[in-house]
Automatic annotation (TrEMBL):
Protein name: LacI family transcription regulator
Pfam families listed in its UniProt record: LacI (PF00356), Peripla_BP_3 (PF13377)
Domain HTH lacI-type, first and last residues per copy: 3-57
UniProtKB keywords: DNA-binding, Transcription, Transcription regulation
An annotated Gene Ontology molecular function: transcription cis-regulatory region binding
Leader sequence segment: none
CDD domains: HTH_LacI, PBP1_LacI_sugar_binding-like
SMART domains per UniProt: HTH_LACI
Coiled-coil regions listed in the entry: none
Keyword Calcium set for record: no
Source domain of life: Bacteria
The UniProt record lists the keyword Calcium: no
Amino acid sequence: MGFSIKDVAEQAGVSVSTVSRAFTRPELVSKATRTKVLRIADDMNFSISRSAMVLKSGRALRVALLMSDHIRLWFSASIIEGLNQVFHANGYDLSIFQISSIEERREFFDMLPIRRNADAVIVASFDVDTEEISQLAKTDVPIIGINCVLPTSGFTAAVNIDDDQGSKLLARHLIGIGHRHIAYIRTDRAVTLHFSVQQRYESFAQACAQAGVELTTIVIAEGEDRIGRAMTELLTLPQMPTAIACQEDGIAIPLMFQLSRNGLRVPYDVSVVGYDDSFYAHDVGLTTVRQDPIAMAKAAAAKTLDLIGNGATDNPFEMFPAQLLVRSSTTEPRTDADRR
C-alpha cells in the first residue's frame, strides 16, 4: 500500500501544505525542514508527480544550460556536476543544449519564449548579445553566466574566474625565471562565438608585451589531431621557444608527452604551463592556474534559484580569484653553456 502526503506530514510532524511546499516551493521552507521532509518522503517512496508540481508552481522546474564544449571535457563535466548537485536537491531538472554557432544560439533564444520550457538560462563560457538578452527580459527569464566575457553587459548574474589575473600570474612566473622566447598555443574553434579563453590569451600577451618579451602565437583548430598539429608548428619555428603556455591543461598535458617523444625534456629543454588544474595536472607536475568549476557552478545555481524565487540575489556578479600552482614543468631556461 502506498503512502499519501498526509502520511508524510504526520511522520515529519508538519502540515500537509508544508510537505507540498517542500516539493513545489522549496524556497519557502527552511532547509532543515525541507531536508527532513524529503528524507521521510524518500523512505516512504512518496513523491509528488512532476506535472502536479509544474501546474501548482506555474514554473517549468527546468533550467537550460548552454554549452559550447563537449560534455565529456573536464570543465563541462564539472559545471554539470556542480549545477546538478544544487538543482536536483531543489526539484529542478537541467536541460543541456550544445551550441556550436551563433545561428544555433539565436535559434535557441528565438524559440525559448514560445516554448516557455525553462525558468532560467545558464550560459557557460561564451557571450550572448543584447537582442537575445532583451528577448529573455520580456519573458522574465533570468540569464546567468559562468566564465563569460563581460558578464555585466546584460546577464542577470554571473560567476567568473579572474582570467586576467590568472594569465598574468603565468606570464610573470615564466618571465620572472628568465624566459624571453615564449610560445602560446590556443584553439581556433570553427564558430564565431566569443569565448572566455580569449581573455586568457589577451592578458598573457599584454603581460609579455609590457615586459618586452617575444611571444609566438600558435593557433590550432579543434580536432583529435590538434596536439600533433601544435607539435608540427613548434618544430618548424626558426627557433624553439624556451617556454610554452597553453590555453588549457587539455592542451598542455598531452603536449608534454609529445615533446618527450620528440626528444625534448620538460622542463630542462622547454618549460610548459597550462590553465585549469584539471585531471592529471598534479600527477604530471604541470605548472598551471587553478580554477574550481564545481564551486563556481554551485554558486551560479544558488543565484539562479534566488532569481527564480525572489527576482534578486545577493552579490549577483561574483569573481573567483585565480591561484598559480608552480610545479615541476617549469624552470629557468638553459644557457648556451648548458646546451654544450
